Amino acid sequence: MRPHIILRYIGLVLLFNAIFLFVSSLISALNSDSSLFPLLYSAVISALFGTFPLIFVPPTKTISNKEGFIIVLSSWLLSCLVGCIPYILWGGEFSFTNAWFESVSGFTTTGSTILTDIEALPKGLLFWRSSTHWIGGIGIIIFVLSVLPSIGSARMTLYRSEMSSLAMNNFHYRTHKTIQILAIIYVGLTFLETLSLLLCGMNLFDAITHSFATIATGGFSPKNLSIAFYKNLSAEIVIMIFMILSGIHFGLLFVTISGNFNDIRKSSIVMYYLLALLIGTALTAVSLHGNQFESWTDSLRYSAFQIISVGTSTGFATADSSVWPMFAKVLMIFFTLQCACAGSTSGGIKVDRIVIFWKSVKRKLIRLQYPNAVVPVKVDKAAVSDETVEMCLVYIIMYLAVTAVSTLVLTALGTDGLTAFSGTAATLGNVGPGFGAVGSISNYSSIPEFGKWIFTANMLLGRLEIFVLIMFFMPRSWR
I need a labelling partner for 68 at 20 to 30 A (CA). Which of 241, 356, 372, 473 fits? Predict the structure, then answer.
């Protein structure tokens, strides 16, 4: 292992963060708000620590798997640490724990907040808060790789360390081309949504910050009431459309935009994803009609937004779902656990694993009837290897185990059961809001100090899909 090479790549990530900190400080200066110096100092610190390794360490075209894992994990942790510096320097509600929580929630695109008054933050700090979503949405490493010149096999090593193997299934290009596709789709969707929200009547600042949060499936809003603040149906429709798009594999979006509609139309993963959102919306609307809303129009409007929001792990809100019927809450918890497709910016277990799980259950039932039958698990007529099936099943079990353990620890700290379980599911799935004290219009400020650290650990585990951390501690996987 070569520490100097690891520091060089981490330095690139810190420089990337410094760019957004400088932009945020510029916005602060234009608005003459109180976050200018906290943001400027943070930008300088990030730039200095990012520049030194580039000056003293020569570039390399090869890195080992071990170095790749360390670079990815260290980049995420150091980005979160740098991200909380402007919060601490600004003060207000930001103790170190709260600043760490807000920063990790931003970079992991979770969207949970400890802030009781979001609108009290100056615009520069609000822009940085939303920027952490956009930086972390597609992956810090992916962003850096997209702007680097050719770095040989190092690009592939970092790419594989950053992305789930499931996320690569729909990419049929070389690594450099794939990374460019991810960046193009990501930036393109952000631009289109910003323009659409401007046409819906939002001001430029709100349109950009909400686009950052939507495309990253994050959920940070500059308003205390989230999207409910605007009472703007056209804006809600635009955000719903882009939440759905951001939950689809970016490779499929690219080939669709390129004129090939067959891949996305024939994708059983995408069809299940869309059908699940449709059925979830319909069932929720039925439970809300006559209970929370008198008209079917309102029932469909609010159920669709909330189901799509949690089903893509975005976490925006147009209503207080904490007061909804238990049936609607259970449906939302299911979508909080499942979320959207691999290869998107969504969190959660992922639709792909759920589909593979049910297909493996079907195969087992057939084998019970016909023990000698050869029944491969297939997705879109392509056989899925037994190793992939096993990894999916193990991941689901581990995901639920982490949820159970985290919930137990939080209840031991005095948190009520609904808040502990839904908060765990929401942070591990990078969704944001849960129920109880951490509902869609509430926040995480009432959670005990140690509980906040547990939730931030969940956010990182969910964003790195658990296995990256496990593989880091398994020397055999470094080869």
Answer: 356
